[in-house]
Amino acid sequence: MNKERYHAGIGLALKLVGMIAVALASLVAGPALADSDPALVAAARREGRVVVYSVLSNKAAQPLIADFQAVYPGIEVDYDGDKGSTEMDARFRAESAAGKFTADVVWSSAMDMQMKLVGDGFATPYRSPEAAGLPVWANYRNLAYATTQEPVVIVYNRDLLAPADVPRDHDGLAALLVRQPERLKGRITSFDIEKSGVGYMLAAQDSLANRKQAGLLAAFGRAGLRQSGGTGDMLTGINNGTFLLGYNMMGAYALSRGRKDLLRLGVVFPADYTLVLSRVAFVSKRATHPNAARLWLDYLLSARGQKVLGDAIELYPIRAGVKARFTAAGLQKAIGPAIRQVPLDMTLAAAMDDPTRSRILAAWRKATGQIAAAQ
Hints:
The protein is α/β, with parallel strands linked by helices. 47% of the residues lie in helices and 16% in strands.
């Protein structure tokens, strides 16, 4: 066999493997979309592309991309999920202000940033036919849609923290920090709320939910809280013993990694209240491919797309009745009455404005300022 025929054969084999993978994704994913408008599908295919900005990594999003393209062949997904929420928000705003090519769909777990973008006029309304299958609260005026339910948890190293020391609620965490200050010094981690959009939103929600938040922040300061911008680094640090405990961690990631490769992770749903956030998606008012953007949003909200989220990506779906490994019913059962859903409304955007933001950041800086030099 000559070299040209060999490489041609390899190329054909790889192409066949890709076709089989997409076909399998289509078979496994579940029911088709409800009532796709043929005219919308035809217009989207003429556009041939959808550009998505997201904080779900490119690698994690591959099952969604493959299955979307199985449902809508001929529509390329240009997906960018390798930036943090703050960086993504800044990029989208800057490109929009400059009149540059930008995202068709913006999808992020930083709910406050998303709602701020909506309030600032960056979203265009779209009444998705899939909205009927969502909780009423998950649709904000046909401008923004919640796509997942993700618990915010305490994560700890099961080998290094005795069961009696594991905090079961926010008061218990503060008490642990007071009881064992030397042992925990520099070994507690959480988001840097000045750099992480999600981290700031969770701090703002804590300020509403926890009447003793000031005391918890003070305990963090005395314990030398170590701050980070990324969930993955924090979970790895907890698993390898660099940290004993992480606060306001993304629960779906922690549960998934704890079953696969970070086997020392323990997860606590705080019994006094467990925040549950959502990844919020909207169609950009400046979308270059508006019809393909609407189809992508329909897919995310559909029973089929939600099943991919709950199975392959291991995020809790927003829709009830989706048969997957992760389900809305399973999350409700795990948390019980302590569940506190972060609302999809403009109160989130208001928390980003002065004087609220200044107050929250000032309290955070006061508590953690003593360790600023260590970051």
